[in-house]
Design goal:
single chain; 147 residues; alpha/beta; Cytidine Deaminase, domain 2; eight-stranded mixed β-sheet; 3 helices
């Protein structure tokens, strides 16, 4: 699979990571499947509800997730991924990330060093939940068609 991001969505994720620095930013990726591609159509920023270790952990409360998922459902989209930032760390999943991830979803991580967004990578948990595989990111501008 390949994750397809519009440059505007990538910019929004980067801005969110910078805005929430030094805490981790987090949100959902809503989109559609097109053959072997997960196409992001909507980025849903959420509030990191972690109170004890927000610098290196994030928490999406179940109610926030449910509301975001309902909005995506109304728009005809599925939750295809989660994004978060790694303040002053590289964009590689931690053991904590692996323990809390779901197979198939894309996990986009952006490294934010000294408040500036840097490298962004996408990961998918393996079926045996033992590790992550890197997932290619393709940047494509999406055209909006109003009906």
């Amino acid at each position: 699979m390949t994750l397809v991001l519009d440059p505007r969505h990538e910019a929004a994720i980067r801005r969110h990571g910078e805005a929430d620095y030094p805490a981790e930013a987090c949100g959902l990726l809503g989109g559609v499947l097109e053959a072997d591609r997960k196409v992001v159509v909507q980025v849903v920023p959420l509030v990191n509800q972690r109170t004890d270790a927000a610098r290196n952990r994030y928490l999406i409360e179940p109610e926030s997730f449910r509301r975001a998922q309902e909005k995506l459902d109304r728009d005809g989209l599925d939750v295809i991924g989660v994004y978060h930032s790694h303040p002053d760390h590289p964009p590689a999943p931690s053991a904590f990330d692996r323990e809390h991830a779901w197979p198939w979803l894309s996990y986009v991580i952006v490294g934010v060093g000294r408040g500036r967004a840097g490298e962004m990578k996408s990961w998918v948990l393996t079926d045996d939940r033992g590790s992550f595989d890197g997932e290619p990111i393709t940047r494509e501008e999406r055209k909006v068609v109003w009906q």
